[in-house]
Specification:
Layout: H1 17-23, H2 25-35, H3 41-47, H4 51-57, H5 66-92, H6 98-112, H7 115-118, H8 124-129, H9 131-134
Bound molecules: zinc ion (ZN).
Amino acid sequence: MVLNTICPLCHPHDETSEHLLLSCSVSKFVWRYFAADNINTDQFFAGATTVKDVLSSWPKRKKDTFGNQLWSYLPFAIIWVVWLSRNEPVFRGKPLDFTRICNQIKSTLWFWIGGETKNPGHYFVNLITVWSSLVAL
Ligand SMILES: [Zn+2]
C-alpha cells in the first residue's frame, strides 16, 4: 500500500497538519482574508508555527461584542473548515473553491455563536458582505 502524502489543496508540498492548516498557500489565503487588517499574518505565522501556537497566541479581545465573539472563534472555525475542505477533493473529488471555504467558515462561526437567536440585530448576510468591518478593532 502506497500512501499519498501530497497536500490535496496545493499539491507541491507534503501534507502535514502544520502545512495543511497554517502554511499551505490555500490556508494562507484563508487566514489572510479573515484576519483582515487586524493582524499581519506573515508576522503572526512566523512566530506561531504549530496549531497549538496559533490557538494559544491568537490575539485576545476583552470586550464581549459581536465582532469580538467572531474573532475569538475564528481560528477554530478556520482550522475546522480547512480540514473539511481538504477532505472534499480527497473523498468526493470536488474541486477547491475559495468562496465556498470562506462562506463555510462564516456559517460555522454564525452557528457556533448562536446565530440571530443569541445575537439579535445581527444577520448572517453581514458576515458574507462586510466581514472586515465586523471584526475590525
Ligand atoms: Zn498545501
